[in-house]
Amino acid sequence: MDKTFQPANIETRWYQEWEDKGYFAPQGGEQSYSIMIPPPNVTGNLHMGHGFQEAIMDALIRYHRMSGCNTLWQAGTDHAGIATQMVVERQLEGQGINRYDLGREKFVEKIWEWKEKSGGAITQQMRRLGASLDWSRERFTMDPGLSKAVQHVFIRLYREGLIYRGQRLVNWDPVLHTAISDLEVISEEERGHMWHFKYPLASGEGHLTVATTRPETMLGDCAVAVHPEDKRYANLIGLAITLPLCDREIPIIADDYVDREFGTGCVKITPAHDFNDYEMGRRHGLPLINILNDDAVINDTAPISYRGLDRLEARARVVADMEALGLLDKVADHTLSVPRGDRSGVVIEPYLTDQWYVDAKKMATPAIAAVENGDIQFVPKQWENTYFAWMRDIQDWCISRQLWWGHRIPAWYDTDGNFYVGENEEAVRQENTLGDTVILRQDEDVLDTWFSSALWTFSTLGWPEETEELATFHPSTVLVTGFDIIFFWVARMIMMTLHLLEEVPFHTVYIHGLVRDSDGQKMSKSKGNVIDPTDLIDGIGLEELVLKRTSGMMQPQLAAKIEKSTRRQFPSGIESYGTDALRFTYYSLASTGRDIKFDIGRIEGHRNFCNKIWNAARYVLMNCEKEDCGTSNKAAVELSLADRWIRSKVQETAAEVTRAVANYRFDLASQALYEFIWNEYCDWYLELSKSVLWDDGASPEAKRGTRQTLIRVLEISLRLLHPMMPFITEEIWQSVGALAGKSGPTIMLQPYPEPNEHEIDVRANKDIEWLKMVIEGIRNIRGEMSIPPGKELSVLLRNGDENDRQRLSTNSQYLRKLAKINKIDWLGVDDAVPLAATSLAGELEILVPMAGLIDKEAEIVRLSREIGKLENDLTRLQGKLGNAAFVDKAPAAVVAKEQNKMQAQQQALETLQQRLSRIRDI
RNA sequence: AGGGCCUUAGCUCAGUUGGUUAGAGCACCUGCAUGACAUGCAGGGGGUCGGCGGUUCGAGUCCGCCAGGCCCUACCA
Strand B: which residues 669-708 of A lie within 7 A (CB)? Predict the structure, then answer.
């Protein structure tokens, strides 16, 4: 074995073997356990969020697979309608063509070609993370089976009246030329202006003043509204306005939606271009005047001089023309929230179109109930409120998209505007008895990608066929996802699955935090703070990192800034840390919080942890290979105190890890393992074992017992750790397993250690605690007195009880070795106490005689500090116990505890004070 | 505008139903080539738990107010 752990040498080798041997597939077992991966986009590259999420799922899957469950981790990707179409369109752009040049069929072919070639990138990266997905069952949302499920669901919901077609205002992306759902619109505050326009009354006398942030919409105005009780305008209600620039008359109407306090109290109403105005228009029977084309250019409904202008050009022209007419009252700076498309980033227009909708309100009721009654549980529970809040006020879901890539809507139109929903044109003709003379044309639109994702838990298992997989693995056990898609995906899955299968899609939803950079900033390409998980695994040079962060940018002007900050943050690039260290870091950060700040320092510590494990294994193997390790259980074995203690500790650790995983607390699980392996097993047990293994006088039974303990505890630790650190544990286990009496081709199919309470040895724990206390007392003196670690000491003990004497006599070999002592003697109570540095272990006094070693002043400082601490503490205790209310009201056990503590502290204080005055006296 | 979350050591975070002297990692200081490991070993320093008030024998933990930070939903033209 190398002296340091070299992850690169082993990771891909083991992954290849696991995958080739089919270990990731379900292995049978009574209890099934399944996780459906949140399908990443085919266009995607692995980012830190994926890495984190997959690390968690893989730990759960490996843990339950080892625990004997019939385990399925369903692999797959989704087709990401808009994103994928954009990627391929951009490629075509490079060749100087657009999708219309190609036509729909050819364009979709191009996308498939692209998908075959590049769509697998992310699944390759997932393999680097060690994710044990069942690749043999990999699915894609556009696969024939899944497409069939999508079509089936659409037709069924349509026939049940849960899908309908309607003309509504939608969120329209004028660049992508498609409707998008409410959730895909991001509104943020931006600085803009508020224009105040005078609208002359039709009578020719006087005017009203309206305010608007979008002047161009006035071309579509259909009314001016005032509050019905607004005295200022009461006499104008029912009169008309002559709409400037348009030569139309529009009414003045009254509606209590209007806020009298805001602006002038008069609102221009544009029903075709504003959601609130649309509602008001419906209330008042106003017409809808649409003034825009698909690309937000003014259409032919508008006065001729504005036609063909982009919305912003039109805005400037309208303002200029109004000013020229003397109708521009004023322009004020105004901060407003601007809706932008989350993909394109352009301002979204409310736009009147025909679209398909899912009646979400009906489907929400059972979906709410399923969470209320506990059929589905969120972890942390807190997220249920987020879910409820949205579900109780849910809006109908616009599911049609004006794209070419996706599941085409199975609806056909005749030339009279009638439409028919069915499996295909032939079926539609038959079902509706349409003769051959009727010309049918299929709906051009496709379905929202989330529509197919909503079916993911069961469409991947073969539904609508009644497959064995469906019976075995559905409902899935747990969904692991981020809070950002509770609405997009989780809620819609719950609604769809409950309605279609009459069962929940999953029993638990584990919501994890979102990974941010070390400053708490969201990682994004435009901020240039993205870290690619594979770069943490393999490492990356500075130049390459700068290049990676600054190439292919949407906003190239930011490149210089990004380069600068990258060079500052990673002056020598990123080192290689390996997958196990990265994964362990993810787990250590996986607490209940919402944000996960990823600090590079954390991963370095965990790489060191890997190295620690590696070297502990080296030590164990050096001492156990080709030696008698009591593997067979036949030969007589003598277990030392240290052996019994570490066997006990590993059981406690197993219990802690099991509890933590059951609660999805991977931070606690990882911490328990780190603490046990480093601070107990390595720091203490391995050191303790040396005093047996290196002692020529030790019996063969004792050596056998120590070797057996070394190897068995290591082997258990490896299995405990394997779900989190799959590679290093496998590599080491291959050598350790057999020595520990285990057989099998891989650790990943070994049973997960079940905590065994009978092996918890309270007595051994206490004895070792005593031993540590004594050793630490001596080390403290050594450290503070600057006595070189190599210098052997002789030590006197005083004032101990029978237990102390007993423990000393059985453990003196440990003490000699770990505290570097050559001589330990008891001092009688009446014996003269020599000048010495003092430490306490309970009532036991540990004295290191000064004899030229100890600096008098330093010892005075040290003792004074200890005494100060004790005095503080005693004052607090005395106050507490002197308080009658405390003694009366607190539970007796608590009071007794405090009293015992006070006694012990008093005793310790006295002892130390005596020692201090003794030293001062010389 | 409504709702929610967060604030603990220099940094990143744990802290179960209120009950030892509030813990860890990293960073820091001191010493050390000791036969697994310098990606290491040993020792050490560092916190009035955001502020104020309340409940309680007892509050990092429960309640109220304030300050700062973040998020979600809705959106006033």
Answer: 671, 674-675, 678-679, 682-683, 686-687, 690, 694
